[in-house]
Amino acid sequence: MAKIVILGAGGFGISLAVMARSYGNEVTLWSPFQEEVDLLTYERENKKLLPGVVLEPDVGVSTDIAVAEGAQLLLFAVPSQAVRSTAQKVAPHVPEGAVLANVAKGLENGTQLRLTQVIESEIGGHQVVALSGPSHAEEVARGVPTTIVAACKVRANAEYVQTVLMNPNLRIYLNDDVVGVELGGALKNVIALAAGISDGLKLGDNAKAALMTRGLSEIARLGVAMGGRSETFAGLTGVGDLIVTCTSMHSRNRRCGLLIGQGMAATDALKQIGMTVEGYTATLVARELSLQAGVEMPIVEQMFQVLYNGLDCRQGIKNLMSRPRKHESEQVWFGE
Ligand SMILES: NC(=O)c1ccc[n+]([C@@H]2O[C@H](COP(=O)([O-])OP(=O)(O)OC[C@H]3O[C@@H](n4cnc5c(N)ncnc54)[C@H](O)[C@@H]3O)[C@@H](O)[C@H]2O)c1
Ligand SMILES: O=P(O)(O)OC[C@H](O)CO
């Protein structure tokens, strides 16, 4: 049994709270929004986000960031662009021995940092665990089998998260490739937007498989250039999360892409789905990183043009299909 404080009381925060509570942990949810806290305090359910998912009466809900002072495990579950401000708020309240983990998937706009780096830069003396993998809140809350990865440079921290959160329906693997795990989680959202566009345009299964496969190539290429290990991108936080996000109706990134493919302007689609379409900012940061590292990312480039420069997505597909001929794996031909 552990005392867990979850920062962020949205879809994933609630689903983690329900699951962790059902396996005997003491759980408190924090949100900066009074309305959200009132809803969960009195109705015990957010019917819009997770209908039918009810918090037990002993799950705490608060706007007071000092609740973090009781935490043995402090989980960040806020949108990626709110991770720094949340870390700043919670920093004076983090107990010395607490283990910190983050489930948000993204890269910080402006600094291009991974989110464990953002938290570590605001809260000294902690090596943060990245908790990532194919795990839609709707299914975690239902308690159907799910597998994720706890990644940290300090093995004991990742093992603590594994010990506290693993249960018969949630299998947690360990990994020390924090860079690969975080980049896989952040960048698959860009490809999920593209896969949604492809579905919105009714391009069929071949096109979507192509986007997913070539998208994974781009993710791995940038990820390796930034210090990740190539095998991580073949794992749960790479191809695993890419599959779930590109194919599921639960995915906000995919649903946002779907609207764009059906003809809605990107800004309107973003408004309709909400701010946690993480692929939008990830596209911007991934493009910057690819240009800086000299890594070719054609799908990311076309997604940037569609999302930020108003390129028609049909033209984006044409641009991808008319690129110069090349070798699939960028290696020289056998024997050359
Ligand atoms: N929903 C999922 O299935 C899922 C699964 C795995 C990872 N994630 C990741 O977890 C993160 C959160 O996703 P979610 O689905 O819970 O999002 P959400 O939009 O449902 O909820 C986010 C919550 O964070 C808090 N929040 C929002 N804006 C904030 C701000 N500016 N400052 C501080 N707190 C703020 C609020 O409590 C809000 O409810 C995202 O990065 C997402 O990619 C989500
Ligand atoms: O709803 P999405 O697109 O943010 O995806 C949620 C999770 O990242 C899936 O693992």
TrEMBL record:
Active-site residues, Swiss-Prot/TrEMBL: K188
EC number: 1.1.1.94
Top EC class, one word: oxidoreductase
Catalysed transformations (reactions): sn-glycerol 3-phosphate + NADP(+) = dihydroxyacetone phosphate + NADPH + H(+); sn-glycerol 3-phosphate + NAD(+) = dihydroxyacetone phosphate + NADH + H(+)
InterPro entries with a match to the protein in the record: 6-PGluconate_DH-like_C_sf, 6PGD_dom2, G3P_DH_NAD-dep, G3P_DH_NAD-dep_C, G3P_DH_NAD-dep_N, NAD(P)-bd_dom_sf
Pathway note: Membrane lipid metabolism; glycerophospholipid metabolism
Every Glycerol-3-phosphate dehydrogenase NAD-dependent C-terminal domain range: 177-317
Positions of sn-glycerol 3-phosphate binding: K105, G133, S135, K188, D241, S251, R252, N253
Protein residues bound to NADPH: F12, K105, A137, R252, E278
Cellular location(s): Cytoplasm
Binding site for substrate: K105, R252, N253
Residues annotated as binding NAD(+): G8, A9, G10, G11, F12, G13, A137, R252
Molecular function GO terms recorded: glycerol-3-phosphate dehydrogenase [NAD(P)+] activity; NAD binding
Any one biological process term the GO annotation gives: glycerophospholipid metabolic process
Keywords in alphabetical order: Cytoplasm, Lipid biosynthesis, Lipid metabolism, NAD, NADP, Nucleotide-binding, Oxidoreductase, Phospholipid biosynthesis, Phospholipid metabolism
Residue ranges of domain Glycerol-3-phosphate dehydrogenase NAD-dependent N-terminal in the record: 3-156
Superkingdom in the source lineage: Bacteria
GO cellular component labels: cytosol
Recorded family membership: Belongs to the NAD-dependent glycerol-3-phosphate dehydrogenase family.
HAMAP family per the UniProt record, alphabetical: NAD_Glyc3P_dehydrog
Purpose: Catalyzes the reduction of the glycolytic intermediate dihydroxyacetone phosphate (DHAP) to sn-glycerol 3-phosphate (G3P), the key precursor for phospholipid synthesis.
Name listed for the protein in its UniProt record: Glycerol-3-phosphate dehydrogenase [NAD(P)+]
Natural source organism: Bittarella massiliensis (ex Durand et al. 2017)
